[in-house]
Amino acid sequence: MPTALTDFCRHPIVQAPMAGGGSGPELAAAVCEAGGLGFLAAGYKTADGMYQEIKQLRGLTGRPFGVNLFMPQPALTDTSAVEVYREQLAGETAWYETELGDVDGPTDDGYEAKVAILRDDPVPLVSFTFGCPSRAVLDGFAEVGTYTVVTVTTAAEAQAAQWSGADAVCVQGVEAGGHQGTHRDDPHADGTGSGLGLLALLAQVRETVQIPVIAAGGLMRGAQIAAVLAAGASMAQLGTAFLATPESGANPLHKQALTNPLFTHTELTRAFSGRPARGLVNRFLREHGPYAPAAYPAVHYLTAPVRKAAAKAGDAQGLNLWAGQGHRLAREMPAGQLVGVLAAELDAARVSLGLGGPGYGPGGAV
């Protein structure tokens, strides 16, 4: 297996692991075959479901790939706020003719079982979201040759990841679509504007840690990739850019909404899951976002039947339309072709910025 981050792929382009169906074997394989680094999202899957997808991906590509795990979350000790939110959602159950979900689902996302499988049958790279694993877990992956990456949203989180033994960090700016990968969910930070943009956060992290950095958040074009590489990142991670590809497992309503003029902007919301996540502003987000409690994954379980019913009804106004701030720049093309276009744009931008020809950037492999 590769021992340096830039050895995993030809281009410094990482396809973000998008849980909930977006990142499956087809998408990851297409990205890997085109010279990028494809990722499977193990979040919301059973341990066996994750393993079956890994087997499928191995049948589609022999190139290195990654698997992303959700860290276990604290158990919900007070359900009163969730029950109040259940009452708030009563109109949704009548509209979509469905019941709300049981909030007593697991809070660990099968973490221990997934770690055990990935230790027994190693993959090239494993990343973590919603926290930092223990040194024992990270050391265990190092023993079997697996490269580890921890998603961070502050310099302090990056420092903790380095201290724990992570090989690299994925720096997630506030522009990123989907869930913010904060290690501690602080409801007091809601609406304060405390989240940092990618370039500001990247600079802070680069001055705090010595391990390689992957930059993520609102990246949609090769010139943006060139910018984060010039700022010190080793690679760039893109999610929303790959969401519109035919290999993506996202709902067609979700794909269409990315460039639909009806959806003008994104916001961070707890409406669908109980954790801050950036999505296109639709009716559900507007009506329920102000009332959603900080209760992940209880709220995720609560709203799951409504989201499923909305999808079945073809109603994008009831879906969690996760998207980064650059969503209007989404391009409908095969994932492999998109990797090629991004790489060509990156090369052109490097030349125009006087950074030389094709390459990874400062200290990276050419």
UniProtKB/TrEMBL annotation:
Xref: CDD domains: NPD_like (cd04730)
GO molecular function, one term: nucleotide binding
Catalytic activity: 3 propionate 3-nitronate + 3 O2 + H2O = 3 3-oxopropanoate + 2 nitrate + nitrite + H2O2 + 3 H(+)
Keyword vocabulary terms for this entry: Detoxification, Dioxygenase, Flavoprotein, FMN, Monooxygenase, Nucleotide-binding, Oxidoreductase
Biological processes, Gene Ontology terms: response to toxic substance
SUPFAM superfamilies on file: Inosine monophosphate dehydrogenase (IMPDH)
Protein name: Probable nitronate monooxygenase
Described function: Nitronate monooxygenase that uses molecular oxygen to catalyze the oxidative denitrification of alkyl nitronates. Acts on propionate 3-nitronate (P3N), the presumed physiological substrate. Probably functions in the detoxification of P3N, a metabolic poison produced by plants and fungi as a defense mechanism.
Record keyword Oxidoreductase present: yes
Cofactor requirement: FMN
Family per record: Belongs to the nitronate monooxygenase family. NMO class I subfamily.
Pfam families named in the record: NMO
